[in-house]
């Protein structure tokens, strides 16, 4: 679908089209990093600065052979895999936005080969259910539409089967080998996500609530130390709880990302930080 000519996403697409060609991943490039990103909802398409940050981040890495993403918006056990079919309709799992966002598409190519690679990486552990009718939810297709607007990279979504950090670290470790094949492994959430506790001035970007800044600063320090034990015990150690995460599905994809790291305990610096409508959009890459 097309956007109004003055819409910020129209400008983003024009800038992306004018960018130099994106060099494809080659085996000699080595393993791609794994990402944790704060993904936004449809209003991400109205934030020029944030779209530029995400696109620049994507272009700082080789163009992946495929993307495997775990999103806060698909909590399902047993472990499940989205449709491998091409051009599957996205999941419009949001409400109250401009009708144009419910007409947006992200028509990625066939992902059958990627599905086989993911199943191979997961090995003979817990069974993986193929949900061939399920498309990508907004935690996946919204940021990827900004990062890779051509939609020419195979993408699959893996469900979030638990909120237990240790189990998610182990799941990420099982996906680590995919990075050596040029697959971009992504955990998609939001570093703070206390939507029920946002005030009008927070949403308008005039203020940031204390619980959001406190949790963000604590997470930043723990990541900078590589303190996975502290991060995994965030419910008890992090200031700003439970307001920063009244439900935890937006924070725990971080542990899939850390599990996919070569060394989970290595210090981690943010690639993107700052706040959006009072929420921390801290995002990072791990090698």
TrEMBL record:
Domain Extradiol ring-cleavage dioxygenase class III enzyme subunit B: residue ranges: 47-263
Molecular function terms, GO-annotated: ferrous iron binding; oxidoreductase activity, acting on single donors with incorporation of molecular oxygen, incorporation of two atoms of oxygen; zinc ion binding
Keyword Metal-binding attributed: yes
Short name of any one Pfam family annotated for the protein: LigB
Keywords, in A-Z order: Dioxygenase, Metal-binding, Oxidoreductase, Zinc
Cofactor(s) named in the record: Zn(2+)
Entry similarity comment: Belongs to the DODA-type extradiol aromatic ring-opening dioxygenase family.
Protein name: Aromatic ring-opening dioxygenase, catalytic subunit, LigB family
Lineage start: Bacteria, Bacillati, Actinomycetota, Actinomycetes, Geodermatophilales
């Amino acid at each position: 679908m097309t956007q109004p000519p003055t819409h910020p996403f129209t400008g983003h697409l024009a800038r992306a089209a004018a960018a130099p060609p994106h060099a494809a991943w080659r085996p000699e490039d080595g393993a791609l990093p794994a990402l944790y990103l704060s993904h936004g909802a449809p209003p991400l398409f109205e934030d020029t600065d944030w779209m530029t940050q995400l696109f620049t981040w994507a272009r700082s890495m080789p163009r992946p052979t495929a993307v495997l993403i775990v999103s806060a918006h698909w909590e399902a056990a047993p472990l499940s895999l989205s449709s491998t079919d091409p051009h599957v309709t996205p999941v419009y799992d949001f409400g109250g936005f401009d009708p144009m966002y419910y007409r947006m598409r992200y028509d990625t190519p066939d992902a059958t080969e990627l599905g086989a690679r993911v199943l191979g990486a997961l090995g003979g552990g817990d069974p993986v259910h193929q949900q061939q009718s399920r498309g990508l939810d907004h935690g996946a297709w919204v940021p990827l539409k900004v990062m890779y607007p051509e939609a020419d990279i195979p993408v699959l979504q893996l469900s979030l089967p638990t909120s237990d950090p240790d189990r998610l670290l182990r799941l990420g470790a099982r996906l680590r080998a995919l990075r050596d094949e040029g697959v971009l492994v992504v955990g998609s959430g939001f570093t703070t996500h206390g939507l029920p506790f946002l005030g009008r001035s927070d949403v308008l970007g005039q203020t940031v609530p204390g619980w959001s800044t406190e949790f963000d600063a604590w997470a930043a320090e723990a990541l900078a130390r590589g303190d996975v034990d502290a991060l995994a015990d965030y419910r008890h150690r992090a200031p700003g709880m439970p307001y920063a995460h009244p439900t935890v599905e937006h924070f725990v994809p971080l542990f899939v990302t850390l599990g996919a790291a070569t060394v989970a305990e290595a210090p981690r610096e943010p690639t993107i930080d700052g706040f959006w409508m009072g929420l921390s959009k801290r995002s990072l890459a791990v090698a």
